[in-house]
Design a protein that fits this description.
The complex is a heterodimer. Chain A is of the alpha+beta class. Chain A contains 11 helices and 14 strands. In chain B, about 55% of the residues lie in helices and about 15% in strands. In chain B, helix 1 packs across helix 10 (about 300-345), helix 2 (about 15-45) packs antiparallel against helix 11 (about 355-380) and helix 10 packs antiparallel against helix 11 (about 355-380). By secondary structure, chain B is α+β, with helices and mostly antiparallel strands. The chains are: A alpha+beta, B alpha+beta.
Chain lengths: ~375, ~400
């Protein structure tokens, strides 16, 4: 076995080539890790607030809260089952928001009308600026993801829900990274009155005494054919909401990373080929000293691996900059915008390093085979 | 042996390396062209939206409806330049068997819809049939949708809705012919009164989802839009009038952010290309330093050395780039493009590599060649003859 130190030192001797190749691999890892971080961010936004003891009830046939409608009579029938601790009915609507970046572009913002208990129902929601809206008033609070991104959506601002019925923004809230942070929350009665939708709500959330009460409740409600409701666990519902956007984003990012990686592998192959060609005398000497062909092969594969991992570390370090960026993405279910951030997790880094390692192995294999084939006599004569 | 021969022979002195580098450049150019094509064709699709049509929606929300009588109010605005008005409601159509992931379903006014939306062509005789009350359940659908559902004219078609409960049964009356490439071929259109007379749709009784107005002068769109919105500014339901394109982008707006990211990604691949090429050139220059010393010693000026190296770098980039462009043309125009045009016509009515993208790719290849070669070229040309001759490796 040739000492690994030999390879590491060789990499340092060829400073320019090593740096250039490592940066190339680093760039590819950057794209790869960026795509993974975006997916993690999306999953976090859609799944973070899925409580196992909470169910979401929407009308059967609807795919989301926006298109669902539940009458007040049905809302009452959803209460009073065994194991049910709390029930809230909420109204959900998207409104047109004018982007506050001077472009004048219109995008959809989700407005949620919730009863006074709605705030205590979700303990993770905390006010970070201003105060909580008073129940029964036109006061609202906006999620910190969209606060300031749209005209009127910051403390002291107003947005119209209907002519001469402005909602007044009194606070900004944090919801632990969940998609709620891209919503506007106000009073359910005020909002549905303004919309002329007093007859019902959009969706209902049910909290159980214990997560195990879910199955029986679901059986009761979905079995009642007079109501036509769909009951899902909150986590499942949220995951399904984000699924199409999440798989779209990560699929696209990973496709790019794979295309990029082929280019980077060719780059690694060029570098390693050059290394083998320049060092054929050294390789011949090593063979003459008694190192086997297999030792030479492993030695050069390890060198390629070290080079790629160096690039991988570089890319992984630089990609952390992305955590400072917030990206608005479209929730295809509601046509509204959710602002997500790149989310760094240990698994992203493990995957990125494995990815860079694979690039090094594939790129370095053929040059390493060439190195193993060097004939000691001829190499030393050259 | 002249300078050109020398440069050409240099190129293939390390045949393996040159071929690897050229393939890497070709691949990078391929990726670059694919990304640029997606961006260019996306914008082309959006630009092809009719310029002489305005969409009039509820000011507050796309899910909120406008009173039916607004249509007559806008129709009355002839003096301001409104030529024709029609309306539709979004049906939230879904395949009951969930075979088709997504398609558009509109409840439309049978008397005016196809006059305004003239990219959908329907036989006038069939259109007259459709206006008769006995054909109230008649639906006019796109050919791709008909294929996906496996239905033909005269068949029964059952569709569900995300908004209106239960099964909705239609009779397929006609398959429209898309006259423009931008016309979606997956749309279901049926009579508005079939929807709003149904007890399951009381919510939409006398309500329209949005209106589309044809105007006489596309240049006056913004002005007419303001006039329409002003007309309803004191009503409970206010309107928001925008170009049809802006209206469509409102639903697909998420894509613009993604396309913005594509710009960075396409720059990223060029950067990878610079790095790979720079590595190859740097290696070649290091190996030949001694030779450059000889050339200088026998009288070649430094400018020639610079020219050799830069020329080699640009040549590799151009050959690789040409290869990449050829593969792109074969791949997109020959294989992927027709598939996308067939299956995603709503988003990409055209999908072939625009000439501008090819030109950009060649321009980018030259730029990459210069960027990758400039530093080694300058360093080598500035090297002292004696130093260069002393270098042996």
């Amino acid at each position: 076995m040739v000492p690994v130190q030999y390879n590491i030192r060789s990499l340092f001797v060829r400073k320019v080539t090593t740096t250039v190749t490592a940066i190339g691999i680093g760039l590819v890892v950057f794209v790869f890790a960026g795509a993974l971080m975006l997916r993690e961010g999306m999953n976090h936004a859609m799944g973070a607030n899925g409580h196992s003891d909470v169910a979401v009830v929407i009308r059967k046939g609807s795919d989301n809260e926006l298109s669902s409608a539940i009458t007040n009579a049905d809302l009452d029938r959803l209460k009073g089952h065994t194991g049910v601790a709390a029930v809230i009915g909420e109204v959900v609507v998207v409104i047109a928001g004018e982007r506050d970046d001077g472009s004048g572009a219109i995008s959809n913002v989700l407005v949620r009308g919730t009863p006074a208990e709605g705030f205590t129902f979700r303990p993770e929601v905390k006010i970070v600026e201003g105060r909580e809206p008073k129940p029964g008033t036109p006061e609202v609070m906006v999620g910190k993801g969209i606060a300031g991104r749209f005209k009127g959506l910051s403390v002291g601002g107003t947005v119209e829900l209907r002519h001469n019925r402005p909602l007044q923004v009194v606070g900004v809230f944090d919801a632990d990274g969940a998609s709620y942070e891209s919503e506007v929350w106000g009073d359910v009665d005020y909002i549905r009155h303004a919309l002329g939708r007093e007859a019902g709500v959009s969706s209902v959330r049910v909290r159980f005494d214990s997560p195990s009460d879910f199955d029986a409740y679901r059986g009761d409600i979905e079995g009642d054919k007079t109501m036509a409701m769909k009951v899902s666990r909150e986590a499942d519902y949220l995951r399904k909401q984000g699924e199409s956007t999440s798989s779209f984003l990560s699929g696209m990012g990973i496709a790019f990373a794979i295309m990029f990686s082929i280019a980077a592998m060719l780059g690694a192959a060029i570098t390693m080929n050059g290394a083998v060609a320049n060092r054929s005398r050294e390789i011949g000497t090593l063979r003459a000293l008694g190192f086997s062909r297999f030792s030479i092969l492993t030695s050069f594969v390890l060198e390629a691996l070290a080079l790629a991992i160096l690039g991988g570390l570089l890319g992984s370090a630089c990609v952390l900059v992305l955590t400072l960026i917030k990206v608005p993405v479209m929730n295809f279910q509601t046509f509204s915008e959710i602002v997500i951030s790149f989310h760094a997790t240990p698994s992203v880094f493990v995957k990125s390093l494995v990815f860079s390692g694979v690039m090094g192995l594939v790129g370095g294999l053929i040059p390493a085979i060439r190195a193993a084939g060097v004939s000691p006599v001829e190499a030393m004569r050259a | 042996m002249n300078i050109a021969t020398y440069a050409r022979r240099n190129l293939f002195r390390r045949r393996g390396r040159t071929i690897l580098t050229m393939s890497a450049v070709a691949l990078a150019v391929l990726i670059f062209c694919v990304i640029r094509t997606v961006v260019a064709e996306w914008n082309a699709g959006a630009d092809a939206a009719a310029q002489d049509r305005l969409a009039i929606r509820h000011k507050v929300s796309i899910t909120m409806q406008l009173p039916r009588h607004y249509v007559d109010d806008v129709r009355g605005m002839k003096a301001q330049g409104v030529k024709a008005v029609t309306w539709a409601n979004w049906f939230g159509a879904k395949d009951p068997k969930e075979r088709i992931p997504f398609f558009a379903g509109f409840a439309v006014d049978q008397n005016s819809w196809f006059d305004v939306m003239d990219e959908f062509q329907v036989d006038p005789a069939v259109l007259e049939e459709w206006k008769k009350i006995e054909n109230k359940n008649g639906a006019i659908i796109g050919d791709q949708l008909a294929k996906a559902f496996g239905v033909k004219v005269g068949d029964k078609l059952v569709v569900n809705s995300d908004i209106y409960p239960g099964d909705w049964e239609f009779k397929v009356l006609a398959i429209y012919k898309p006259l423009r490439r931008t016309a979606d071929r997956n749309t279901l259109m049926f009579r508005w009164d079939y929807l709003t007379d149904d007890p399951r749709a009381t919510f939409s009784k006398d309500q329209v989802g949005w209106m589309t107005a044809r105007i006489d002068d596309p240049g006056k769109g913004a002005e007419i839009g303001r006039a329409i919105d002003a007309k309803f500014s004191e009503k409970d339901d206010q309107t928001l009038t925008m170009s049809e394109r802006a209206f469509q982008l409102g639903f697909l707006g998420g894509f613009s952010a993604i396309l913005h990211a594509f710009d960075y990604v396409s720059l990223g691949i060029l950067l990878v290309m610079v790095l790979i090429l720079a590595n190859t050139i740097a290696m070649a220059v290091r190996e030949r330093t001694h030779e450059y010393g000889v050339l200088r010693a026998i009288g070649f000026p430094p400018g020639h050395i610079l020219g050799f190296i830069l020329g080699e770098s640009i040549l590799v980039a151009l050959v690789g780039g040409a290869l990449g462009v050829l593969v792109t043309l074969g791949l997109i125009n020959g294989m992927i493009g027709p598939f996308i045009e067939e299956n995603m016509s709503g988003m990409f009515p055209y999908f072939s590599v625009p000439t501008a993208v090819i030109a950009t790719a060649f321009g980018a290849a030259v730029a990459v060649g210069v960027l990758a070669g400039i530093v080694p070229a300058i360093l080598a040309s500035k090297l002292k003859v004696t130093d260069a001759l002393r270098r042996l490796d």
